[in-house]
From TrEMBL, chains A, B:
<dbReference type="InterPro" id="IPR008136">
    <property type="entry name" value="CinA_C"/>
</dbReference>
<dbReference type="Pfam" id="PF00994">
    <property type="entry name" value="MoCF_biosynth"/>
</dbReference>
<dbReference type="InterPro" id="IPR050101">
    <property type="entry name" value="CinA"/>
</dbReference>
<dbReference type="InterPro" id="IPR001453">
    <property type="entry name" value="MoaB/Mog_dom"/>
</dbReference>
<dbReference type="Pfam" id="PF18146">
    <property type="entry name" value="CinA_KH"/>
</dbReference>
<dbReference type="InterPro" id="IPR036653">
    <property type="entry name" value="CinA-like_C"/>
</dbReference>
<protein>
    <recommendedName>
        <fullName>CinA-like protein</fullName>
    </recommendedName>
</protein>
<comment type="similarity">
    <text>Belongs to the CinA family.</text>
</comment>
<feature type="domain" description="MoaB/Mog">
    <location>
        <begin position="6"/>
        <end position="172"/>
    </location>
</feature>
<dbReference type="Pfam" id="PF02464">
    <property type="entry name" value="CinA"/>
</dbReference>
<dbReference type="InterPro" id="IPR008135">
    <property type="entry name" value="Competence-induced_CinA"/>
</dbReference>
<dbReference type="InterPro" id="IPR036425">
    <property type="entry name" value="MoaB/Mog-like_dom_sf"/>
</dbReference>
<dbReference type="InterPro" id="IPR041424">
    <property type="entry name" value="CinA_KH"/>
</dbReference>
Amino acid sequence: MIPTVEILSTGDELLTGQVVDTNSTWLMDRLWDLGLMVRRKTLVGDDRGDLQAALREATARADVVVMSGGMGPTEDDLTAECVAAVLGVPLERHEPSLEAIRRRFQHFGRPMTPNNEKQALFPRGAAVIPNRFGTAPGFSVQLGRARLYCLPGVPVEYKGLCDEAVLPALAAGLESVPAGRVVKLFGLGESAVDHAMRPLMDAPENQGVRFGYRAHWPEVHVKWTVGGEDATARADRLLGEVRALFGDAVWGEGKDELPRVVVERLLSRGERVTTAESCTGGLVAELLTSVPGSSGAFDMGVVAYSYEAKSALVGVPAELIAAHGAVSEPVARALAEGSRARAGATWGVGITGIAGPGGGTPEKPVGTVHLALAGPGGTAHVARLYRGDRDRVRRSTAFEALFLLLRAMR
Amino acid sequence: MIPTVEILSTGDELLTGQVVDTNSTWLMDRLWDLGLMVRRKTLVGDDRGDLQAALREATARADVVVMSGGMGPTEDDLTAECVAAVLGVPLERHEPSLEAIRRRFQHFGRPMTPNNEKQALFPRGAAVIPNRFGTAPGFSVQLGRARLYCLPGVPVEYKGLCDEAVLPALAAGLESVPAGRVVKLFGLGESAVDHAMRPLMDAPENQGVRFGYRAHWPEVHVKWTVGGEDATARADRLLGEVRALFGDAVWGEGKDELPRVVVERLLSRGERVTTAESCTGGLVAELLTSVPGSSGAFDMGVVAYSYEAKSALVGVPAELIAAHGAVSEPVARALAEGSRARAGATWGVGITGIAGPGGGTPEKPVGTVHLALAGPGGTAHVARLYRGDRDRVRRSTAFEALFLLLRAMR
């Protein structure tokens, strides 16, 4: 039997737009890996009546309820109290938790206030979930038809306790955990991906496979989970089929991130890249250097925004700019080749374009971008017309540059 | 009477971790400006039973329910059908909407499929909300005790229809719309801000003022709304008091964004900045050039990651690096001054540091950063030890650099 799961979060800050509840998105993703989909998610404020009503409703519908928030030391933190009230049991002090909280305060040299003792109070009969990531322990109880898990809302604590206690308990209750795979694509729209995937999704041998997408723009991820005895083999067979289906558009799997894949490829080949960016304004360099250890593959880059900077920093001839305009194939090539020569790098990326909202002309509208990649075998060039606002044009361009570089290193 | 508001969203993609529901956070923020707080938010999947139950429950509790999703052309889009079922009325075709959808498809030169006709079907008696941002119109009906608004889930359409139809209708029903103000701070933790704000928040003359924070890291925003007759005057008086309270830590108000404030200040003074970045890897340049029109204030920057790049691109003497190490005050100063001289800019930003996770030593642990700002009056320097991961160290550093520059242009 596949359990029904609901998520319940409490906290005024979640209802005033102060905080985006990213915890639940993260948990939904993890549950998907177990073959579970959340049936309903509810957010309520720090109000006894609302919280007790939501607890009663969720635990009457679901087999598992994962609740977060309201576990702090303040008057607004009502979770343990409300769970106890709905259960009809008193709160009881849990001495090991109180001791752990005391030690934590000692360790950080902060005074423990009487408030913090509240974080060691749990409904009678609750199973305490120790928290080595923060102060507030979690707990679980049987309530209504559901196993109810109550966790602190601080993301590092929430995720830590989910990983250590909630997800293993859920997985242990399943007859089998499905095998999940993710393939990451670039340069295709979600509808094109969906269209291409249809025959695989409708194939009789893939009955019972759960497919999904995540438009992690400018990437698209295709994912699926397979249950049953030969789950791993079936999931891996699909991996081969999906890779074959999308060919060159595939750049990664699983937890891969494009900047990291590019940097690791460079490092494994003992090669370096340099950048000369105009419209992306340093975004390509920023993405590359976001990867730990990138200094082995990247040692310099320039942002050449003006005509003068393109000439002064990369040696683009002023006549070239005058003849073709700054946003042109020859200038992109000169940026790539000039920066590569200057840095003595294996690869040189040159980018020039019109990110908008101003600067467009009928011949070169906003979104016009020229990318060039200079390398050992010569210089490749692509022209693009991206849609969207300034941020979207810049991000599309930067990821396209990384993708071009990765393709060139096959 | 202040109405009770609930949010209801539908869509399997919201329950599988594929999509973060940012629409509701946005709406909560807007409602806060009207003095309204959302009482409950519910997410359900594309399931008739779940959706009808959630509709019945929310419209029995609240005065206003804002629902999103399920308005597309596919079989999974169930909103109009489920609202009609709960109301006990049939769906009816709305000819003006069908005509508008047809025109939209003609305009974009795409064929209209029979599916799309579904988007012109509404529960009998519904008030249609035209959608000039996309295909699917919204609608509103009276259901239970609530006015129910049903909107498409695509963010640009959702926000557009909220701004054009939902929020004005809500505001019109209020006796008075409170005056809201936001002050934006840098360099202070949320708890320090809360501590400093306490006397203002507890002052008798501020009774009835609703205060809130948003930790928009590495910034903190303080906001408040005031109702009643002299709302604007009271909100503005508080603006003066909060500004006085935090002094130099205040960099903006309302919708201000730090990179934009910095670029606008530069443009208004006719000045330019250049950057020489090591550990931030181009992030400062990227933030500056994210602002439309920044080319008037920024024309070049370099990312000098290696020792050699620092010397070759900015002229940092190799002996200086050998004597003090690359992460040091003298090298930060040389980066700032060298880049300023080279670019002929008014301001030069120099950044060197250890973003981690590797590269730390007992003397210079991960998070050690030296920032320098060279300007007409000399060169300022700050040393910092930031906590957190690589991304956090880099973002803290980049925003600190922008903040330093802004402070220098008072």
